Amino acid sequence: MNDQTALITGASSGIGFELARCFARDDYRVVLVARHLDELREAARLLHQEFEEVDIVLLPFDLSLPDSPAKLYAETTLRGLQIDALVNDAGFGETGYFSDTDMDTELAMIQVNVTALVHLTKLYMRDMMDRNVGRILQVGSLSSFTPSPCQAVYAATKAFVLSFAEAVQHELKQQKSAVTMTVLCPPPTDTNFFHVAHAENTRAAKNTASARAVAEEGYDTLMEGGARCLPTMAAKMNFFTSLVLPDSMLATLMNNQLHPVER
């Protein structure tokens, strides 16, 4: 049996759940973090259905609250849980022109997508550095590479994740640390993201990747110590497009993908 523990935020559904499934398959203890306990219990039920012996810890925390990362870290410390792999998957979006979208929603988005990610990384990475071993997976997006009208704040948070991860990766090399950090940049994926982001009636929501396929490729890259994962061929092609087209053209393309279409 594997005696290692993985903590996954946003673990009750979508890519987060599928990543938890990957760890459970490899006999990790999995610490599932999400806002709602009932959804965590359902996720645990599904994991136990497939992996009977997996050790699952459920920790309901709302990462949009500024004190949640510190409380989460304190709780895992109190329980004597050594976190060997940290997955920062929790995040959400909002769709619409910035002048029209809700400010409180976007400030909460920054708290979850950026502030909580940095806070949790700081807390758990310090422990990993002391042990000189550990893995961290930051979930970015293809939006990390492009300006995205109609999801301006969301795309900006994911651009932050990419820049942050790449800078820390370099620092880890300079420090000659065995701790690794990987950034996963999924394409539009079949999760509840589009429902939460009010983007169900967009072109981007009509052609999505499998959450399981995205998670498995991201997990493999994490285990290999890779720096970046662009899961699926479509993601790789879109990334290449972002390298050769000017930002103005990319913004136009993204606007077409994210602006609501006529029913």
UniProtKB/TrEMBL annotation:
Assigned keywords, A-Z: Oxidoreductase
InterPro entries referenced in this protein's UniProt entry, alphabetically: KR_dom, NAD(P)-bd_dom_sf, Sc_DH/Rdtase_CS, SDR_fam
SUPFAM superfamilies membership: NAD(P)-binding Rossmann-fold domains
Gene3D superfamilies according to UniProt: NAD(P)-binding Rossmann-like Domain
Gene Ontology terms, MF aspect: oxidoreductase activity
A Pfam match: adh_short
Any one of the GO CC terms: membrane
Superkingdom of origin: Bacteria
Residue span(s) of domain Ketoreductase: 4-191
The keyword Secreted appears for this protein: no
Family that this chain belongs to: Belongs to the short-chain dehydrogenases/reductases (SDR) family.
Name the UniProt record assigns to this protein: Ketoreductase domain-containing protein
Species: Hymenobacter arizonensis (Siccationidurans arizonensis)
